[in-house]
Amino acid sequence: MSIDMNNTVTARGIHKRFGDTKVLHGVDLAVDKGEVVVIMGPSGSGKTTLLRSLNFLEQPDSGMVQIAGIQVNIAENTPYTSRQKKDIEQIRRKSAMVFQSFNLFPHMTAIANVIEGLVSVQGMPVKAAREKGLALLERVGLSHKADAYPAHLSGGQKQRVAIARGLAMDPEVILFDEPTSALDPELRDGVLDVMRDLARDGMTMLVVTHEVRFAKSAANRIIFMEQGAILADCAAETFFSGQTTPRIAQFLGQVR
Ligand code: ADP
Description:
The chain has 256 residues and is α/β, with parallel strands linked by helices. It is built from nine helices and ten strands. Adenosine-5'-diphosphate binds next to strand 2 and helix 1.
């Protein structure tokens, strides 16, 4: 696979093991600017590990990651150089992560959670950060909850705050790790609607999810993983057409 500099995300030959368990077997991936790519596959196939490897929340054993033009090559058993550490820091800033479990600071209000990175990482003055944060809360339909603490928000609202927090840093890509799996079914649509809006606005998104309706309506491409490898990487239409492989048909039969 060649590295297209227009790609927002490129990963090549990503290997990862935990102890004796090989979890990723040399995964290649490319996401264009503005693309929405959904990663599906059975539990334990390495979806989360792949996503976390892209912004170094997991340290890949070897391979290459490039996000927003910043490239990091990892060689087995070689400690990061100070240059690589700086590049990883940059990649983290350019890629927001939205977790299944929201990961909001419980002692901070919604707006404080959203602007924390702006103030502490980017050094933006609090007044300007608050203005930007309020606009982002508005975008996820929660400006009226700006001063609420997470304990007083529903799971769906917490996840929308987490998305606003991700957007605050003006990321090049948002990595979503099963953003609705921890939510009661009736709270999922609010989150998925926000994600659809982002997709429509041209945000580059990589989404691990089992939400077939979301994937059908918002994804440009579906990547299907099994046992640490990508088995299919195709247009959403093709993936859901029933014309792929018996294994994918079987998987879809289970998640529908
Ligand atoms: P998925 O997201 O597809 O469910 P994961 O990436 O979470 O898959 O996990 C892939 C495999 O790696 C699983 O066998 C899981 O048990 C293992 N694994 C994930 N994280 C760790 C960890 N921190 N330590 C040990 N094993 C892990």
